[in-house]
From TrEMBL:
ABC transporter domain ranges (all copies): 2-234
Alphabetical keyword list: ATP-binding, Nucleotide-binding, Transport
One Pfam family matching this protein: BCA_ABC_TP_C
Name the record gives this protein: Branched-chain amino acid ABC transporter ATP-binding protein
Molecular function via GO: ATP binding; ATP hydrolysis activity; L-isoleucine transmembrane transporter activity; L-phenylalanine transmembrane transporter activity; L-valine transmembrane transporter activity
Gene: livG
GO cellular component: plasma membrane
Source species, domain of life: Bacteria
This protein's record includes keyword Cell inner membrane: no
GO biological process, one term: L-valine import across plasma membrane
Organism annotation: Methylobacterium aquaticum
Length: 248
């Protein structure tokens, strides 16, 4: 469904993403992991149209969408969430979700009905008529997912949707993510919480210092020496191997 071909993004002298490529099959949950500052959110920005690549292409269902604006990609079926959740505090939860629903449903009644349906689907049914400002961090994360989901995407880009949640909140939202995929929406997710990556993702891509350094099934990727060193520093893989030998 999605093919990212050698995307590069330069900010003057800084190369934030350096010829990164990945592919996301339809019907999958694919992970994008890497240390802080690796360029993951910048890559999301180029996929969704919020940033213009310096080089490379973005293909969605075989069509080159590299030069398209975000709203045109949204109409094609690409939606994204943002790391920093900023709901419209003066609106209710349902009204916030309806902002996304207006993309497909121009009539207010239809947009609100869609918003209530999506809000219920992500676990916000009892909060729909409350001000968005009353939501907890976990509630705001669900609202961010709901607003994107209300655009009725075919591809959903989740940017650290679990960040800031406690273990029980993470456990509760994992089935929501899985149910979105089971409902026909393909997912590409940036995530630091490896429990979630291991549980949800069929394939994972690893970005470090702007470059893709590994890809494959989660357990295989997490055992890759390059990946270990990207997270833990040079020599970490050798140290871990030595420690395992001692323990054995």
């Amino acid at each position: 469904m999605l093919a990212v071909d050698s995307l590069t993004k330069r900010f003057q002298g800084l190369v934030a993403v350096d010829h990164a490529s990945l592919a996301v099959p339809a019907g999958s949950i694919t992970g994008l992991i890497g240390p802080n500052g690796a360029g993951k959110t910048t890559l999301f920005g180029m996929i969704s149209g919020f940033l213009t690549p310096s080089e490379g292409r973005v293909l969605f269902d075989g069509a080159d969408v590299t030069g398209e604006a975000p709203h045109l990609r949204a109409r094609r079926g690409i939606a994204r969430t943002f790391q920093i959740v900023q709901p419209f505090a003066g609106l209710t939860v349902a009204e916030n979700i309806a902002v996304g629903a207006y993309l497909r449903h121009p009539k207010r009644a239809d947009a609100v009905a869609k918003a209530r349906e999506v809000g219920t689907r992500v676990g916000l049914r009892d909060q729909l008529d409350k001000p968005a400002s009353d939501l907890t961090v976990a509630g705001r994360k669900r609202l961010e997912v709901a607003r994107a989901l209300a655009t009725e995407p075919r591809l959903l880009l989740l940017d650290e949707v679990l960040a800031g949640l406690n273990p029980s909140e993470i456990r509760d939202i994992l089935p929501v993510v899985r149910s979105i995929r089971d409902g026909g929406v393909t997912i590409l997710m940036i995530e630091h919480i490896m429990q979630a990556v291991m549980t949800l993702c069929e394939e994972v891509f690893v970005l470090a210092q702007g470059r893709m350094i590994a890809s494959g099934p989660p357990r295989q990727v997490c055992a890759d020496p390059q990946v270990i060193e990207a997270y833990l520093g040079k020599g970490a893989a050798a140290r871990m191997k030595a420690e395992e030998a001692v323990d054995a």
